[in-house]
Design a protein that fits this description.
There is one protein chain. This protein has 15 helices and 19 strands. It is an alpha/beta fold. Strands 1, 2, 3, 4, 5, 16, 17, 18 and 19 form a nine-stranded mixed beta sheet that branches. Strands 6-9-10-11-12-13-14-15 form an eight-stranded parallel beta sheet. α6 packs across α9 and α9 runs parallel beside α10. The longest helix has 18 residues.
Length: 533
């Protein structure tokens, strides 16, 4: 065997061994552990067929710069069927297709753990279906999403999961998983959380906002967190004081304030910080990890840091809109400020650099999108005479990777390894998909992005290179970025080829996730074996 192939096997085995740490538990499909298939066996193996009936093809990616959260090196990647079979320099192996990645980054496909497709809200539904939204996602370099199934108050979470499966199955362009939004949890339904975990749904979202619809009281949140801690799963928290916010909304409307900017003015940062403080304190008492979603401001970041410093098992994400947009957007002419009515709202600009610092310091673990698109026409317009009736949410699933590469790596805020970590590896670990997702290693799914770090584009809904989302505006209209997704493989199949979509609905599959796998997993496991009092 040539020396370069032996070198590649040693590197691949090393990466695979490191990647396999912590890969265990329910929900994991058999045989996803990195290094399961030996490199030589993958190269010499007989032709097989995928579970969807397609012949498994082989792909050789040559001359690329491979970047993961831990590594940065030049090598070739050989893909047999759906997984990475071999990594090495100057590989000479037969392949059905050879892709020259010279001058390109070869990175793990993005994992977006916060999206809302076909979600009912305020008398309408998000404008992206699972088909259109995931197609836009893969154009931008994201190869796996975690969307939200919603439990209707008073109903079974298991029945609600079935309804969301029916929406997504056979329609997605990429792989997908679900969180479960829990709105109420009486004692007799607490065991459903373990049943969900057995189905591969190992995280749950709860709200401190939207009284009467989504809001859960503190006792329900504690009950869910304690059960999640016992089971090795994770509660995600929308942290705002929704009760006080509702009072502020009433006051604003009574004073005749109907414009979109009052959405932001009635949701001050102190109320996000109060919600974060309360969620973190409840998690601390419940002895459970917790994940704060869409953290938007310095006030909430301070609460997160304080909790982490005292040993709370706390994770948090932020989103591109909070890193790049600010409260001045609500002053756009006419009703255009409604484009940015999302929750939490945009903040004063100075918060942005504080969030970047939080990412650099690893206080924040993930950059998700909270992709929740509503068109201006016929959807956002529902609140033209009352800001509280504007559907909350905005688009972003397609632009995340380019925006964060440009404003993170190109701007010198963090390096390319950290870019991969916050957009792919971090969420894959936390949400029980690593090393199947989130890395490039032998045995991992061949979810791979060939990314041109030098190509410049201007984001616009009028440019088919940058806008495939089913929505009539872009939140980042006119943003210039350097860094562009060129070619994408999803489980070994080329689905974006030189910027063109060549996949089909149904290419994606449901991912049964394993238990919580974040940095606090060993500590969380140790607390499960101790009595409460």
């Amino acid at each position: 065997m040539p020396e370069e192939v032996r070198h590649g096997e040693r590197r691949a085995a090393r990466i695979g061994k490191r990647s396999a740490d912590g890969d265990s538990g329910y929900g994991r499909e058999g045989g996803t552990r990195a290094g399961r298939h030996g490199a030589a066996g993958a190269v010499a193996g007989a032709a097989r067929r995928g579970t969807d009936g397609d012949a498994w093809m082989s792909v050789l990616i040559k001359n690329g710069r491979i970047v993961t959260a831990a590594d940065d090196y030049r090598a070739d990647v050989f893909i047999q069927g759906e997984t990475v079979a071999l990594i090495g320099r100057n590989l000479v192996v037969p392949a059905d297709r050879v892709i020259d990645a010279a001058g390109r980054l070869v990175i793990p496909g993005g994992v977006d753990p916060h999206t809302h497709h076909q979600m009912p809200f305020g008398g309408t539904e998000t404008s992206d279906t699972f088909e259109t939204g995931t197609r836009a996602a893969v154009h931008g370099g994201t190869t796996c999403i975690v969307d939200f199934a919603i439990q209707t108050r008073g109903t079974s979470t298991i029945e609600c999961l079935d309804a969301w499966h029916a929406k997504a199955a056979g329609r997605t362009a990429i792989d997908y998983a679900f969180h479960m939004i829990i709105t109420d949890l009486p004692d007799h339904r607490v065991p459903e959380m373990r049943r969900l975990a057995d189905e591969g749904v190992t995280s749950y979202k709860m709200f401190m906002a939207y009284p009467g619809v989504m809001l859960s009281d503190d006792g329900t949140i504690f009950r869910a967190m304690r059960k999640a801690g016992e089971d090795g799963t994770l509660v995600c928290m929308h942290a705002e004081n929704g009760i006080v916010i509702d009072e502020l909304v009433k006051i604003a409307l009574a004073e005749g304030h109907i414009e979109p900017k009052y959405h932001a003015l009635t949701r001050p940062t102190r109320l996000e910080a109060e919600g974060a403080h309360r969620a973190l304190a409840i998690a601390e008492v419940a002895r459970s990890p917790v994940y704060i979603v869409h953290l938007s401001c310095h006030d909430a970041l301070v609460e997160l840091r304080r909790a982490q410093e005292r040993g709370v098992m706390a994770h948090a994400e932020t989103c591109p809109q909070y890193l790049l947009l600010d409260v001045d957007a609500y002053d756009e002419p006419g009703f255009d400020g409604a484009k940015y009515v999302l929750t939490p709202p945009l903040r004063e600009k100075w918060n942005q650099e504080e969030l970047w610092r939080g990412l650099r310091a690893r206080d924040l673990d993930v950059i998700s999108t909270d992709h929740c698109p509503f068109c201006m026409r016929e959807q956002k317009e529902l609140g033209r005479d009352d800001f509280s009736r504007i559907p909350n949410g905005g688009p972003g699933i397609e632009n995340r990777m380019s925006l964060i590469f440009h404003h993170g790596v190109n701007a010198g805020r963090f390096d390319v390894n950290r870019f991969v970590e916050v957009t792919s590896t971090g969420p894959a670990r936390i949400f029980g998909m690593f090393p199947r997702k989130g890395t490039i290693a032998v045995g991992s799914d061949a979810d791979i992005v060939i990314f041109d770090p030098e190509r410049e584009v201007t984001i616009s809904r009028h440019d088919p290179r940058t806008h495939h989302m089913n929505i009539d505006y872009s939140a980042y209209e006119g943003f210039k970025v350097r860094g562009y997704t060129e070619t994408v493989l999803s489980r070994g199949k080329v689905v974006i080829d030189q910027g063109e979509y060549v996949g089909r609905p149904g290419d994606g599959r449901f991912v049964k996730r394993g238990p919580y796998g974040g940095a606090y997993a060993p500590l969380a496991a140790s607390t499960r074996s101790s009595t409460y009092f």
